[in-house]
Amino acid sequence: MDSLHKLVEIIGRHTPGDGIRSTAIPGVSLVRSCTPTAPMPVVYEPTLCLIVQGRKRVTAGATTYVYDAANYLIASVDVPVMGSVIEASEQEPYLCLVVDLDMPVLSDLVLRYPADDKDGAPAAGIQLGETTPELLDAAARLAGLLDAPGDIAELAPLTVREILYRLLIGRGGAMVRQMVKADSRLNQIAKAIVWLRNHYAEACRIDDMADIAGMSRSTFHAHFKAVTAMSPLEFRTHLRLQEARRLMVAEALDAAGAGYRVGYESPSQFSRDYVRLFGLPPARDASRLRGSAWVPVRESGALAAQA
């Protein structure tokens, strides 16, 4: 059995139902869906998404990524996106292995395997890369530890390290290096993103975020959009609306209360922005979601809206 088919068998066996499942391996989760899904909001944190069966579409700002078993997705910073499974069936469900990126391990690998990378414009916060046989082999051995729980503590860190090494030496290695270099443009933008995620409900000035990133206003704006495919204010709007949607569904807040909680002073502006992102007025959308199986959850580095 080759590595891909082994992964399909293991993940299928350890995901008896649809959804995201954490595992006994720290920082590793499994995803399954037997049907295509409607676009749902998710905030990707630094993570590797390795599809072994099916296909998914992810949209960040105006940029769309479609990937499957031939290509992995890696997110280097926190990015709000709309994600949907676009190829799945009962016979061949969508199956994905998700691995959180361990920054201390990445930092050590970058020091051990230096490269002469020139840090000009920052890499995009989301990139696709070729899923090589070597990466698949390491992923299969990692997933295989779910059948040998006594080996996880000793062998999982070594296998995760190998997976990160494969990412580092692959075509997307330059982005991985930028993630852990303290003076890289990507790392500077990441600091501003972390701040913005913690203060999205507040009135924040571009100049303040630029200061946190250590850049001029114009440079910060250009690099922020290169990384996230959104302007800083668009990014903040996505964070606000995703949280407002969660509040209305999970905590039964009305639209006005949810909008106010996430920082909107104008209900009409909140409604306009909401319709633009989700396609329905807030109250109608929340009512629809409460009548479905949609549940907002936080698992394995991602705030996922799962069906």
UniProtKB/TrEMBL annotation:
Record's protein name: AraC-type DNA-binding protein
MF GO annotations: DNA-binding transcription factor activity; sequence-specific DNA binding
Domain HTH araC/xylS-type: 190-288
Pfam families: AraC_N (PF06719), HTH_18 (PF12833)
Record bears the keyword 4Fe-4S: no
Record keywords, A-Z: DNA-binding, Transcription, Transcription regulation
Species of the source: Pseudomonas straminea
